[in-house]
Amino acid sequence: MASTGTVRLSQSFVSVSASRLTGGALLRQVALLALLFVTAGFWIYFSVAASGFTSDFNLFSLLRFAAIQITIGFAQMVALSIGDLNLAVGAIGGATGMIAGWAMQVLGLPPLVAVVFALAAGMLLGFGNGLLITWTRINSFIVTLATASLITGAMLIVTHADPFSRLPDSFTSFSETEVASLPVSNLVLVMLAVGVALFFLYRNLSLGREMLAVGANRRAARMSGLSVDRVVLLTHGISGALAATAGLMAISADHTASPSLGSDWLLASFVAPAIGGTLLSGGLVSVPGTILGGVLLATISNGLLLVGIDNFWITVFLGVVLLLAVVLDRVTRAAGGAVP
Question: Which of the following CATH numbers is that of domain 24-334: 2.30.30, 1.10.3860, 1.10.10, 1.10.3470?
């Protein structure tokens, strides 16, 4: 009877949390629509101000870059959904990209086998983060900051910082292939498939609702009978697999697995979901918003380069946007937009 009561209490908590989280649905839809208009506005501006912005070559490159950035954002969004951070997103993506490159170039494995191998490695590294967080009860910020250094250091020691640039044509051509003769890379389809899977996870599966409940109020989730440690472990495993996916997409687009891969992912991994409406403190995510946020970032980066503005300004822009997202996160919590 006690276990039955716990299960019912757990289900009730998840249900109540989900209903409270959807209470501001109209406000979030308005924000999403505003983001869409802002993105469209930048597209219109750069179409006029930047020569070559609407060319097939540029659109193909822009959307391919956006697909990678969005997938990086997905990896961080998943961790944010439970109120955690994954500062090892770039390290995992870089390490698994190097693993795939080594598997194809040195071991001669078929690309599909190397991809599965790299995805498994990314998931295991994510599980490692989750285990350390649940066992030590140390904040995810500290744990993933430490593991990021460990993963990157181990990768550099093993590979001697040598890139793998002789990747099979069947692997690199995947990112170069257009979809239905449109200036859209296959990588965009990969990103959209990941986005649909995540949308289904959070909308329809109990695991997704449990992740949001843990992010909304971890203590209450634990008291209601949810296995918080299990949710944390699975969440970081998914985040690691998504980081590996981004790493594979990046080396396919770059035609090489470089030791520097992922070194500049950290800030961008937060900005795309933050712009899109994911709460940095957990409990609320937006898959469509993360996609739009990634497209906006890629558009601004690409457009500034075409009009001759130094790309270093993008770093300033990302920092400002992330700071604004933190403020908005606080305001949303105070206004009751998520479970406190």
Answer: 1.10.3470
